[in-house]
Fold this sequence. Notes:
Layout: E1 42-46, H1 47-52, H2 60-63, E2 70-71, E3 81-82, E4 90-94, E5 97-99, E6 103-104, E7 115-116, E8 123-129, E9 143-149, E10 158-164, E11 167-176, E12 181-190, H3 192-198, E13 206-217, E14 222-237, E15 251-269, E16 272-293, E17 296-321, E18 324-343, E19 346-352, E20 355-356, E21 359-360, H4 367-373, E22 384-392, E23 395-416, E24 419-430, E25 435-449, E26 452-463, H5 467-470, E27 482-496, E28 499-516, E29 531-548, E30 554-568, E31 577-579, E32 586-596, H6 602-608, H7 613-616, E33 626-636, E34 640-641, E35 645-647, E36 652-654, E37 664-665, E38 669-681, E39 686-694, E40 702-707, E41 713-717, E42 722-730
Parallel strand pairs: 4-9
Antiparallel strand pairs: 1-8, 2-3, 4-5, 6-7, 8-9, 10-11, 10-42, 11-12, 12-13, 13-14, 14-15, 15-16, 16-17, 17-18, 18-23, 19-22, 20-21, 23-24, 24-25, 25-26, 26-27, 27-28, 28-29, 29-30, 30-31, 30-32, 32-33, 33-38, 34-37, 35-36, 38-39, 39-42, 40-41
Amino acid sequence: VNIYSQRQTPLKFYLHTSALQGETVKVTAGYFEKAKDGIVSTQTIGIEEIRSDPVGSYDIQMMVHALPSVITATDQNNEIIVRGGGPGENLFIMDNLEIPNPNHFGEVGTGGGPVNILNTEFVERIDFFAGGFSARYGDKQSSVMDISLREGNYSNFESELEVSMGGAGLLAEGPFADGKGSYIASIRQSFLKYIIKSAGLTAVPEYWNSQMKAVYNIDSRNKLIFNAVTGSDYVKIEDESRPDMKGAENVEHKGSQYTTGLTYKSLFSKNGYYLLSIGKTSSTWIADVYNINDGLKETYFSRDNLESDNFIKGDVVYKISPALELSAGINGKYGQYKMLEDLLPDTVYLFNYPNIEGINLNNYNDYYALIEAHPDIHDDLTPDTVGVAKENDGIKINNSGGLWKYAAYSQVKFNWHPFLFTTGLRFDKIPYNSTSVVSPRAGVSVSLTPVTKINAAIGRYYQTPNYWMLLNPNNAYPLKHSYTKQQILGIEHLFADDIKGTVEIYNKTYHQRPVYIADTTSSSLDDRLGFTDTGEGRARGLEIFLQKKYARKWYGTLSYSYSKAEGVDPRSDVVKYYPWDFDFVNGFTLVGGYKFKFRKSKWYQEFRESAIFPYISWMPFMVSDQLELSFRYHYSGGRPYTPKVYDFHHRIWYIDPHVDYNTERFDYYSRLDIMILRRFNFKRINLTTYLDLQNIFDRNNEWDRVYLDDGTYEMSYQYKQLPVGGIIIEF
Length: 731
């Protein structure tokens, strides 16, 4: 073949067909995916499973509450509590970018909130690790939620409109750069204020959020990925006694947050790839707590806090052979924190009560017995203030700062049937508190049969204290990293292609956990605001999980957990364990669903063409192209708490510093939710409607006690029976 300058040389190859006959080869995909590097305590959740969950269809954190290792403290919050941990011990990753708290109205140092800001329609899959995760995940000591987002359409422009009781959202996706790139973007806005105000209520939560992902394929081996998610929220609450208000009846809150980053992905050979990401996260909390006197607003507490991280991270994965894979990575982060808080001084008065029926209340100790014996005594109590008992100095914090965080890891994954072995080391360094720690981790899976495996993992997991704790100017010394030691053992069995069961036991110990200095003594007068790193604790449990994947018509999960989460009493003069706040002991969740595909039925096709169909098809219980019924039932034991005592001489509630912690428990929690989801496919649009009936039995699930100024308390309850509906139109 001669090659000529400035000219093409065409070549033709003539092929002749021939038939090759051999044995039948059947290739099938499994229903259960395994997360990358996942050995134990791992679940992979697909987008259709998220959409079908009765309470998780539009909140990915709510969905994982169905797993045996996860509990939540309240219906009003989607925070994740994993195996005795706190709400701030969970790592959220979105396309290789870390998100501190992906929720509206989130609290500082936690990972939960009432409304998630991530759009479910972006999600491709979720890998959730409840423990024993590999060395590539760090700086959290309980769990990891690794969220992979799908790419936008490379061929056509598509849009989607979503309207629900919470608000309205618009999503668009399509190609750019002649098909070399794609984007997907959304924006959502709440309109609860129009519903709530019309109902005469005062607390009006308002929020909006937006999200975008753009991908540009430089060539077949290299691509750029841009992600951004942002949101803001506002609420004004007046004259409401609620547990989450912590005694404040008038609050005005503003918050905002964003996470943005750029990732470069390169397949540098047929055996390996690397990722390089840069990004920034930021969260703000602004609040005023006030009284209203004679129509005037008197602010007695104000807050203006900010946390942000600038980060760069790199990961490389190389497969030396089909059985051996190496991976490593580095991470650099600069964190900043601003804490401006101002609490005005307050006066605690000593009250002098009159004599009632010969009883001198000033010398009376059993206040509750008196109230029970004389129910109308409140009408006669008109105390006179006789003096100042104590002057609270108030709090004034004006603190800001920053710190560098460095990390590196390496790990080896070896697959030699029937053994799968993963081991790795993680190194974390923070100059601020002179931390240089190494975390060894290992996991092994042994296939006893083609359908049965024994899985085990062991490791150490360090976590940096929250910035507002670590940088607190009242600390006596820089706090060390808290950490957990974890040991997990489980068995996994595939009962059928679409049915899998797991049983796991775990032991988890906590070390160097931050606690208030004031909580380390039994003195009721100790009000020091700083922290010490002397907290210790443990969590142990048994978990059973059975899952039926959707293969033909129905699907479901059954989970049960028995656990004990305990902490060492932080008071130096008390040496004993006490139940932690999230020690629910028993938990049970049952989720199920059935899909009716009426579109395949001849009678439905005829009904769909009838004149009456357009007029009645919108009704929630009418048949549709595809109708899905799903339910979720959840039970958990009562949450422990420490009862408060009322000092009627000073008219304040307090926890007796000499009593044992968490000796009482609330009533057990029980709730059933049912969802009806319907899909229609028309020539130009697709239509999805859903109706989620929450707390079907309208049970009064206890939330918390609300302590009142007159020495009485009321019980506040979780959400009552609540219908939630919405509609999604795809263009």
